[in-house]
Amino acid sequence: MISFKLFVNAIQEAIISASDALMDKNTSLLDKYFIEAPKAVETHVAEDEDKEQPNVQSAATPNKHTLVPRTVILEYPHLGHDGEIENLEISVPLITLVPLTMSKIDKATLTASFRMAVVNGEVQLDLGNEGNGGLFKKKPKMAWGKIEISLAPQETSEGYKLLVEGYEAILKRQIS
What we know:
Layout: E1 2-3, H1 4-27, H2 29-33, E2 34-36, E3 43-45, E4 52-54, E5 67-69, E6 71-79, E7 85-93, E8 103-112, E9 115-119, E10 122-126, E11 145-153, H3 158-175
Antiparallel strand pairs: 1-10, 2-5, 3-4, 6-7, 8-11, 9-10
């Protein structure tokens, strides 16, 4: 027997965990289409000295990570000033070449067969684990159920849309 509350809580936690895994997969787009920019050492001139010194950040300042898009260089045919076709090398961010697809759990349905009883004022579920152990009682005890999880495309966030549109605008200027 299992408490109905614990049963529902376990199902809810499993769905939340699956949803979190999908969200992590969605945010992994950053790793797929962006790389961390090389770190440059900032320098400043000390007031009491004439030499440059590295700018030391205090421990309270969080580390900032600058990401730059992963790009490929493509040759693009272009009609030159003299009427001849020239090949321009253009830097194309990979994020502009692929559709952004993200998923979310749209619906989760669980169907299970069980008996219910009230024990000490709490609803308890009997999922039928007693079962038939078979002739030699070696078959595993099982409860039968059915789980349906529907995944749906998630609306692309405005931030992603604006980011991609910005890179597409830069790409258009390179070609024009």
